[in-house]
Amino acid sequence: MRHHHHHHCPEGSAPHGGSPLRHRRGRFGRWGHAPQDGAIEPAIEAVATLEAEATPSPDDLAVRLFTCVGKGCAHGAEGKALLAALNEAVAAHPTPGVRIDVRACGCLDVCEQGPVVVAYQGNAAKAARPPKGALAGLLNRPVDRFGQVSPADAGRIVETVLHKTRRS
Description:
Layout: H1 40-53, E1 62-68, H2 76-92, E2 99-105, E3 117-121, H3 134-139, E4 144-146, H4 154-167
Parallel strand pairs: 1-2
Antiparallel strand pairs: 1-3, 3-4
Helix pairs in contact: 2-4
């Protein structure tokens, strides 16, 4: 008859002794990796698709032209003359189904392109000032944007905006 020798291991060194290993969550939580940089792209595409599929209702054919005449604007005087010229051009192009109105707005932060006219349709055409910030810019793409314009360009701007508004 053989005796089994029980070998005693010091506490904690046995494979099942000591504290069990706990699974620690990494820096990025459950999945263990950083969110992908490309994750925002599909979202942007989805917004663009939604925009393309949304058909404007007749009441959406309101267009607002914003012209910057900020305080201390380098193009302030031109901006004011441009506003007057745009209003005249709108009056000279009566268009059934499209309402264009012209608004002065503050600085658009593109002074080197000034004077600037930005045309918006839809919700942004009802706003008192143009959308600011990246998300607002994504959700409210301008119908068109014109830089370094003079009062002499007002007629061409109105015609271009009307053409694009009718097409969309």
